[in-house]
Amino acid sequence: MKQSRSAIKNISFGLLLISAISNAQASINNGDFETGTLSNWNTLTTANGTLGVGFPSISSFDVAGSGASSSALGLSVGYLTAPCNYPGYDCPRPTEGGGIEQTITFSGGLTLLHANIAVANAPSLYGGYNGDGGTFSLFLDDVLLDSFTVGKINAGTVSRGLLESISYVAPGAHTFKILVTRQYASATSSLTQYIDNVSASAVPEPNATALFGFGMIALVAFYKKRAGNFND
Fold it and tell me: Tens digits of per-residue pLDDT, 39-68?
């Protein structure tokens, strides 16, 4: 029975080691904005973009739609200067805005990148709607991984969504970025884009996990059989 107990101890150690390796993944700092500031984040704008007058801001909002409000990043993006007198008629509407980015060191492997996003439109607005709530884009090292377009949004409504991607991330430092753009000027008095619950987490690789599990089952069965033979 000593050999059987020793085997179980070794298996337990192996499970703990594998668990530690699977979870060895860098996290995004201040991804929930609960510090009340943009610490660990850098802001950015496109060439003719703006984050909005009085933005970025941190305020309480139910971005995920869970019924509970929490600290979230607020933006009111759009173009800074109209390229012509009547964009959309005299010239194409420019797509401009801005966002946030952070440099993160990953240990490598499959990684789930996630963010909750929302757009809130003011209750009263001339025309009853805004033609473009915004497009949210998730980048890693300037490679687009996911995007969510709100499009037309009615007055007094909230549109919610997710940015998510499962990708293999090589070990080392990487730039994580969320960009928000619109085809209109910034509408700070009526339209706000929100970001919250930004995270990066390890995803166990299915093949490796399955092989490890089968191996553990085989080892336990083998040592149980040996222990039974010693007791005969």
Answer: 999 999 999 999 999 999 999 999 999 999
Q: What is the pLDDT of residue 189?
A: 81
**What are the sequence ranges of the domains in the chain?**
27-203
Which 3 state secondary structure label does DSSP give 40?
coil
d(CA 200, CA 113): 5
Specify the length of the chain in residues: 232
Cβ neighbours of residue 224 under 8 Å, at least 6 residues apart?
A: 4
Token pair for residue 153? 């949004």
Does residue 11 carry a pLDDT above 50?
no
Nearest to 109 by CA among 26, 199, 177: 26
The contacts of residue 4 (CB under 8 Å, 6+ apart) are: 223, 224, 226, 227
- Residue 78's DSSP bridge partners are 50
Q: 27-203 adopts what CATH topology? A: Jelly Rolls (2.60.120)
Alpha helices in 81-231 (DSSP H): 206-231
Is 205 within 8 Å of 18 (Cβ atoms)? no
Cα-based angle 159, 162, 163 (whole degrees, multiple of 5) = 130
**What is the Cα–Cα distance from 197 to 33, expressed in whole angstroms?**
8
Helices (H), 46-140: none
Give the relative orientation of helices 2-22 and 206-231 as an angle to the nearest 10 degrees. 170
How many C-beta atoms lie closer than 10 Å to residue 150's C-beta? 22
Report how far residue 174's alpha carbon sits from residue 25's, in angstroms, rounded to the nearest whole number.
Answer: 13
